[in-house]
Amino acid sequence: MHHQIYVVGHKKPDTDSVASAIVFAYLLNAWKKAGCKIMKVEKEAVPVIQGEPNAETKFVLEKFGIAVPEIMTDGEGKTIALIDHSDKVQSVDNIDKAEIVAVVDHHKIGDVTTPNPIFFVNFPVGCTATVLKFLFDKTGVEIPKEMAGLMLAAILSDTVVFKSATTTEADKEAAEALAKIAGIEDIVSFGVEVKSKLSDVSGMSAKDIIMRDFKDYNMSGKKVGVGQIELIDLKTIEHRFDEIYDELNKIKVEGAYHSVVLMLTDIMKEGTELMVITDEPKIIEITFGKKLEGKSVWLPGVMSRKKEVVPPLEKTFANL
């Protein structure tokens, strides 16, 4: 019998999934102590992650003096709260053999199901931390400085310093309120500092660059992989395009993908160089109105995988 609720984000954890796991565990414990009208909490909550945090996340945790959560990849027999995802493929192994008691997210609703009603909160905002800010406010729990810092960093990371198409007014308002609590005066320069940690790919192999934030999708029966790396300046990686493309090809062949795409997103230019290897090059022209004539196409204004790349691709595949 497990006497804990394990709060866990998705595979290949990013700053939002790690920070929000830590913050939601804190909030659940506050609810356990004080009582909460909207969720009865009887167990101690513990944040866990499914893999090593990236450079950006490590920077954020260090800045606010928070320990890196322990890694947990198997959910069998455990009580679990899902954060920043509700897809089985993104979740811990044996999720079907776990008791899920809560989901807090901002993505499309996934395929996780439960036998009983649970605490489920999902807003169409840019970041899970924005949803958590709402829950703090709604239940009257005071936000400590370091938790505010984690949430602020998560919002700035997920919304790409408010430049992503996923950004909402709610994200901006939450960030402003959290910055005051965390003692961050210049939100944008802090956001650029956070994002620059993830931009430094100098010591990474081509495979690590591709796989750092890579997700698999089933698009009308076809296996499609979509990776994304956000850069302060695309020029820092241009000399490695051939090497990255060759590695992308290997991944496609070994993983038996129909298509693999890598979003090389330039934060300052606000656009994405989309590197593509596909069995049907016409899908890029159908989806984005630009013909794939080499290794990649430039998509001005495209910053979000979740909103601007995956849904239009899914639509194209559905109509093939």
UniProtKB/TrEMBL annotation:
Q: List its EC numbers.
A: 3.6.1.1
SUPFAM superfamilies recorded? DHH phosphoesterases
Q: Boundaries of each DHHA2 domain copy?
A: 191-317
**Can you tell me which residues the record assigns to a coiled coil?**
none
Reactions catalysed, semicolon-separated, are: diphosphate + H2O = 2 phosphate + H(+)
Q: Which GO terms describe its cellular component?
A: cytoplasm
Q: Which UniProt keywords apply?
A: Hydrolase, Manganese, Metal-binding
Obligatory cofactor(s): Mn(2+)
Q: Which domain of life is it from?
A: Bacteria
Tell me the GO molecular function terms: inorganic diphosphate phosphatase activity; metal ion binding
Instruction: Report what the protein is called.
Output: inorganic diphosphatase
Q: Which organism is it from?
A: Thermodesulfobacterium commune
